[in-house]
Design brief:
Radius of gyration: 23 Å
Distance between the termini: 60 Å
Length: 163
């Protein structure tokens, strides 16, 4: 019996099977990594380059940000995962020193609970800036409006890097 050490020894059906399974899987994997990279501004497992911004400067064009401003804890909204294992706190961040403003351009979503004794706090938050999408639903918007806040049409959500 002669041993075969070349790729041409594989029958055509095996080559066809490999091409039929591996090629689409590779295309899907590359597309998923590409979408993640585009959405997060960095490849999976990495953080995007951070750019320091103020609430008045932030936009959907930003990805990795260091948000500098004054957190308004007068309204602390809590979100929980569907299975109840994770909790996030949401609060608006205003321009540095602004404790009387009611116009919200930026919301921060974090797993770190703000100190319940504080009403305002100067913060520096590293995170991922993005459109709020489904993370900020109508119930959150209603609660903020009922608390006297006016929401920007292009509200930006900063998901804090909490590790």
């Amino acid at each position: 019996m002669v041993a075969c050490h070349t790729r041409s020894c594989y029958p055509a059906s095996v080559k066809k099977l490999i091409a039929t399974i591996l090629l689409p899987a590779l295309v899907v994997a590359v597309a998923a990594i590409g979408f993640y990279w585009w959405d997060h501004g960095a490849p999976p497992g990495f953080r995007p380059k951070l750019v320091e911004v103020r609430p008045g400067e932030i936009s959907y064009d930003n990805r990795g940000v260091t948000l500098v401003g004054t957190a308004n804890y007068q309204v602390r909204l809590i979100q929980r995962s569907t299975d109840g294992s994770r909790t996030w706190w949401l609060f608006p961040v205003m321009e540095m020193g602004d404790t009387t403003g009611n116009y919200v351009r930026v919301l921060v979503r974090t797993t770190h609970e703000p100190d319940e004794l504080l009403g305002f706090e100067d913060v520096r938050v590293d995170g991922l800036a993005r459109p709020p999408g489904a993370l900020i639903g109508p119930d959150v918007r209603r609660e903020l409006i009922a608390s006297g806040f006016e929401l920007d049409e292009k509200l930006v959500l900063v998901e804090a890097f909490d590790d």
